[in-house]
Amino acid sequence: MFRYIMRRILMLIPVLLGVTFIVFSLMYITPSDPAQMMLGANASPAAYKQMREDMGLNAPFIVQYGRFLFGYKHPIFGYKGLLFGDLGRSYVSNRIIFELIFSSFPNTLILAVGALILAIILGIPIGIISATKPYSVADMVFTVFALLGASMPVFWIAMVLIYTFANNLRLFPAIANPRDLLSLVLPTITLSMNSMAIIMRMTRSSMLDVMQQDYIRTARVKGMDEKTVVFKHALRNALIPVVTVAGLQFGSLLGGAVLTEKIFSYPGLGSIMVDAIFQKDTPQILGSVCFVAITFTIINLAVDILYGFIDPRIKSAFSKKKKTVRGDL
Questions:
Q1: How many C-beta neighbours within 10 Å does residue 31 have?
Q2: Do 74 and 142 reside in the same domain of the chain?
Q3: For residues 284 and 276, what is the distance between their CA atoms, to the nearest angstrom?
Q4: Is the pLDDT of residue 237 over 60?
Q5: Which of 7, 191, 234, 248 could, after both became Cys, cross-link 115 (CB 3.0–4.6 A)?
Q6: For residue 94, is it within any domain?
Q7: Vertex 198, ends 227 and 219: CA angle to 5°?
Q8: d(Cα 225, Cα 232) in Å, to the nearest integer?
Q9: Confidence of residue 126 (pLDDT cuts 50, 70, 90)
């Protein structure tokens, strides 16, 4: 297990390099100019030329990308760059990128955790009910609900909720504030709809597969109560793909809350990323994307480790593999 964890951590390096290269390339070929945006349309040609030189925008693409990765040699602090844990400063605010990320990420984390909890609380029980009563009226209703939740765009759900519960009924605020729990209800529901539908469908599919296994039939023949069969024997084995989906959805919620945060004027990482894209603040965009990529990879690693606690067979598989390798040696 330790070697597996170390391999997954080492795999993070090429993933980050690929992500940064793609994002840096997209920002490089976009027509907008960060120097022009910082100086304004009335800046003199000399000031514009000097600003581009100071920002290093006149250098070739590979040189700019290399500076972002490896930075430069500081006389006191040594090398500074992405590989040395320094993302530089924002073109627009001149603030350190890590300060901007860590000042906004807790707000995004609050929203993502709330959305995931809501998706799990509703998605798993609904999936269990659908699996235990397949093709019934309740199963059909829940299936339609899941299809709607998975297919409706986030911005449309947000606008419907704002129009209904904020403008007409005036039950919840239209602008979200991380310090006001009531204002987080609408963005949490908006962000959780798609994840809730996916978790529900995965729970139903996994439960239907497990309920047809031989040991479930044996438990029923022995006269066990149906609740014991479902929750003690079937659900635990059916949770493995559900945990996978939930972990992936949590990573998606952290990086995919951009539209939700922007619609509800929520001060999270997604809002900062949108503002940085419009301002072509390359260091801020790259820093945010790298941070989301690292977070997503760590979540996937945590899900893989959690498998061993949910299903002991996976933990024993690692032990058997280790014993086999030692025996061959």
A1: 5
A2: no
A3: 6
A4: yes
A5: 191
A6: no
A7: 20
A8: 10
A9: very high
- Report if residue 213 sits inside a domain: yes
DSSP 81: S
Counted domains in the chain:
2
Q: Nearest CA to 254 among 106, 93, 128? A: 106
DSSP string, 153-211: -HHHHHHHHIIIIIIIS--S-SS--TT-TGGGHHHHHHHHHHHHHHHHHHHHHHHHHHH
Highest average pLDDT, of 96-100, 124-128, 273-277, comes from 124-128
Q: Are 186 and 206 in contact (CB under 8 A)?
A: no
Residue 98 lies in a domain: no
Q: What are phi and psi of 120, to 5 degrees?
A: -75, -45
Whether residue 284 has pLDDT greater than 90? no
Q: Residues 171, 293: one domain?
A: yes
Q: pLDDT band for 329, please (50, 70, 90 cuts).
A: very low
Element (H, E) at 74: strand 72-74
Over residues 160-191, the pLDDT tens digits come to: 999 999 999 999 998 988 888 899 999 999 99
Q: Do residues 179 and 99 lie in contact, with contact meaning Cβ atoms separated by under 8 Å?
A: no
Of the candidates 35, 56, 84, which is a domain's last residue? Answer: 84
Residues 109, 25: one domain?
no
Shared domain for 260 and 193, answered yes or no, is yes
The pLDDT of residue 119 is above 90: yes
pLDDT, averaged across the chain: 81
**Is 68 in the same domain as 117?**
no
